[in-house]
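From the shared-data thread, chain only:
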Amino acid sequence: MTTTRREFLLSLGGGFATLVATLVAGGAAARALGAQEETRNTMSGPMNQTAYLPVRLAPKPNAKPALTERQRNDLEHQLQCQCGCTLDVFTCRTTDFSCSVSPAMHMDVMGLVAGGYEAQEILAAFRKVYGEHVLMTPVREGFNWVGYFAPFGALAAGAALVYALLRRWTHPEVASPIALPNVNATPDELARLDDAMRSDQ
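Structure, as tokens:
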């Protein structure tokens, strides 16, 4: 069977169009997969791999590490990873190996420790770059005291309310008397009503 030039060009064009469509679809799938990797979810929402900000200070003169490895790890428990999880830097970097933020924050901590900085200086440096939300617990100053005392105040108020309700239920005489409507009745009618109620019992 012979093929005309027109049929040959049409089949060639159709094959080319199929190839282009396959490549475009494959590229879209790869981009979608990459976006999915980029927007992985943490326990509290999407992971933000771009949240890292460098925290660096010039080393102190004749700097020697001011913290032991254990003290450095304790310090990292006080810093919250910024990837979107609710974990501290130490826990995130040792449990979630897909996070790139906590290892970068860990490297900054190590650099500051090697530069001779103490724990409070390192916390202050991170707070200056990220803001107060980088700390796992708020600093005990100013309005932050409300966050420390409000739960105890709410607990005390709840306990007082439960006590008052229990007292009212177990001692009904303590409850405020109920106002009765004004009744126009003679003493004889009231006595007969009292007798009827007693005989009902």
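The chain has a mean pLDDT of 77.
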